[in-house]
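Below: protein 1.
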Amino acid sequence: MSSKVALSVQSVIGTLKTSHFVRNVAMVGGGIAAAQAIAFAFMPFLTRLYGPEAFGIAAAFAAIINIITPMSTMGYANAIVMPDSDDDAVAVARLSILCGLCMVPLSLITVHLGKPWLASWTGMEKASYMLYLIPLSLFISAFFSVADQSAIRVHLFKTKTRAYVESTLVTNISKLVGGILAPSGLLLIILTLVGQATNFMMQMLRVPRIGVLKPSSWFGFDGVRAAAISQRDFAIYRMPQSILNAASVGLPIILLASLFGSSYAGQYSLAVLVLGAPATLLGRAVGEVFFPRITRAITMKSPNAYELLLKVTLFLLAVGLVPFGMVFFFGDYLFSLVFGMEWELAGKYSQWASLWLLSTLVSGASVAALPALRLQRFLLIREVIGVISRAGALYIGFVVFKSDIMAIVLFSIVGVLLSLSIIYVAFRRLLVSSNEWQLTNVNKEMTD
């Protein structure tokens, strides 16, 4: 019996070593780990230089950016990996850039007209001029999204990873130097935008200038109309879903900033930054490798698609369980120790946020499978329900219990339930589809 178990373990290890998927995930995940190690190495110094208020201002601005960023390409950039031919993929990239160029002047007008309201909504009344950086952010995001998805399409994971690590190092060094000379929320915002632009430039300098990765091919109108029609699901469902998801995630920061002040928003932003960055980026690493693979498996009606989704989901659960479990039990102590005593509240926030972010990480594989399963409509409906539920949870915490901690607890519980709903629907649909595909194959073999 023991010998059979040993042989089975060896077989699994051998499979993992030769798996292109595992190697690609390890490459992207390793780069993310390196970048996060760099960020965490700088963070204890940055938290002592800038303070909760500066972090809160930067977080409020980031919340706005995250909400409107999907509009920079109308969601079409995510569709670059979908077409079978490179010509069609180039047309999608061209459409994405065109959307981005149209959104920049529109966002500038919106900011100018709605600046007082936006500043009041985010608690940025004293720094409302920072809102004029929103059009610049959308411009950078459009080009970065196209370059990023194009690299994913041709499996340039090593190039992407290297650019991300280098830009993370440059950004954090800049923040450290700036914090010593003139720390402020504005500086954090500017250097974050510079970091994203640096990531884009470093990535483009290393990719082959051919096909969808040729920047000159991103401009023009050829194939744009056909691309907009063929990939309209991404604009109709994915873009609103991404906006609603960012809005629901950013609600605590916005409400904490407007109701309690920038300092409270800064505390929460650090908690989500420390926990959310590895969770989001590791999930993205798996998603970038997994998305093309699960899309092909479902498109080709492979009976192994369900097993593939199950394996990746269990892998994400195994990876996230220990670190998030430690934060859940010891978050307040760890944050005070690492970032300074003034960040103890961030540690308390992190204990409950860890549950929600772990569930978000685990649901990443299911989210990647939804477009190929034609479930983007469900994702949009789920996000509408999610915004309402999360807003309700925060309202109960802030107004009924009059407690910021209780608001974060209820917000996190809702997040866990929403992630579980995605996992359930994706697995259920894929199980039904797999059974239908198997039956079709059997009938075809009997006919032949």
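Below: protein 2.
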Amino acid sequence: MNFKKIVSGFAIVIAATLVFTACDQKGASSSSKDVVIISDIDSVSYAIGVDVASSIKEMGFKEINSAAVGKAFNDVFNDIPVLISREKAQPIIRTYIDKVRAEKAKEAEKEANDFLEKNAKKEGVKTTESGLQYKIIKEGTGAIPKVTDKVKVYYKGTLTDGTEFDSTKEGNPASFYPNGVIKGWTEALTMMPVGSKWQLYIPPALGYGANPPRGSNIPPNSVLIFDIELLEIEPGK
């Protein structure tokens, strides 16, 4: 997420916090139990609160001090000297977000290691020196691609919880060079004979690591599971 958008999101959440800590025109605060949805501004305030709070929670925040946010809103709109200036607010937000992301990445890395450790013991699963794990569903008899060979494959990618994040469709295979994809794919494709179907279990270090593609539903440090069928290769020139 773009930092400017994050900061603007926090600016919006100040308004949204009125849902939790409503302030009257004199600056007095009241409990969220007193908040009712009557006017248009009531509705839009609550809607903003739901939207922004959900986004912040998805970013990894496990808690937020809504009373502090409400006080900041009240201070700004009533021209009361603020406890933290706007200029100092942005680096504070940035530092905290970085901290939250680092904690999430560390937790995800541990989960990935735990999964791979257990998965390596399952029947039929093989582990290479790099840490790539794979299971042969069907062994092909064709040629094995080189990194400079263009390949055609069918595939489906899922997370360890079964969430699908990418796939090809029947009749529309993907075409690419093995040296132009993630390391786990490169290694697997250059071991697979044409006609093979494998299931890959790709560690974060051989996948996207802590930086998955923007806009994807792949969390940082995820194990990637791919069902892949190597259809054919076109020798490179």
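Residues 3-83 form one domain.
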